[in-house]
Amino acid sequence: MSSELLFTDRVVIITGAGGGLGRVYALEFAKRGAKVVVNDLGTSSSGEGNNAKAADKVVNEIKAAGGQAVANYDSVEDGEKIAQTALNAFGRIDIVINNAGILRDVSFGKMTDQDWDLVYRVHVKGAYKLTRACWNHMRDNKYGRIIMTSSAAGLYGNFGQANYSSMKLALVGLSNTLSQEGKARNINVNAIAPVAGSRMTESVMPPEILQMMKPEFVVPLVLYLCHESTTESGSIFEVGAGWVSKVRFQRSAGVHNGNITPESIRDSWSQIESFDNPQYPTNATESVSGILSAVNNKPTTGPVLVKPTKPAASA
Ligand code: NAI
Predict the structure, then answer these.
(1) Please, where in the chain does CATH 1.10.287.4290 lie?
(2) Does position 304 have pLDDT exceeding 90, yes or no?
(3) pLDDT at 303 over 60
(4) Residues with C-beta less than 6 Å from any ligand 1 atom
(5) Mean pLDDT of 115-130
């Protein structure tokens, strides 16, 4: 078990690889033999401007160390162009790391449509466009490894990040479904929620914490998940500072009542929210079959709703 995980001649696309986490993924993949497409639009943290230098710098670093890399300066919204860069330069696509990201943090009452749309376009639409552009190619090759970059803000919510947390959880949904669609074609898809010192977090973390949270600590999990020997798919991981943890959805065993009413909900609330006998559905079929087996154990007479005492206001 001591053999090194190598990526010899694997072609990997990494978005937002001009800095932060993306840069260190790119350097490590290249060091281990991969051919890397370093994508970066070169924007500010809030998505303004563009600069080709960001990607060029990382490509030069990789080449100076003897690795193979090519730059791409398109926005992730133009995923087809990024995929084409990989195909033109290296002739195939094996691994996609959807990593590019921006922040437009603001409390919900002050959020503008632009704050919402821009964060959607970079995180969700960008990951969709690039992954879609690579998907059929991976299906035809019967091989693919894909990472979606979520966030603790998406999994748990965070003040001032209604836009960002919505998009980050959307990426978990995308990862979950693609892992199921990709299963028969050896395409593994996982989501990570990293924590790392970068320009994105330098204003919210003190220097000593930033030092502990080097992006390099996130890299090993991403490389492990993307290796050809790894079968893990459809999972969510939190990772940072050398700590790695798997996250899953848990639900209570629930309560079935064929005569369900608001009052029966009230009366059985402690059972509804009891996690004494938890269940862990891993897909929608398991979720529904769990409900059906609970229902099948007891006859259902249908929900009983109280009739409104006043006529409903006309629409
Ligand atoms: P960063 O700001 O250092 O790097 C993001 C890169 O994405 C930048 O180089 C930027 O130019 C690029 N980019 C932005 N919009 C782009 C677009 N439309 N097309 C192509 N490139 C674009 O940020 P960091 O910290 O490295 O974050 C990487 C990912 O990890 C992001 O998705 C972020 O949301 C996520 N993340 C980071 C956390 C952290 O603690 N640093 C926490 C949770 C999630």
Answers:
(1) 249-310
(2) no
(3) no
(4) 15-16, 18-22, 39-43, 45, 47, 54, 75-76, 99-102, 122, 126, 149, 151, 194-196, 198-201
(5) 98
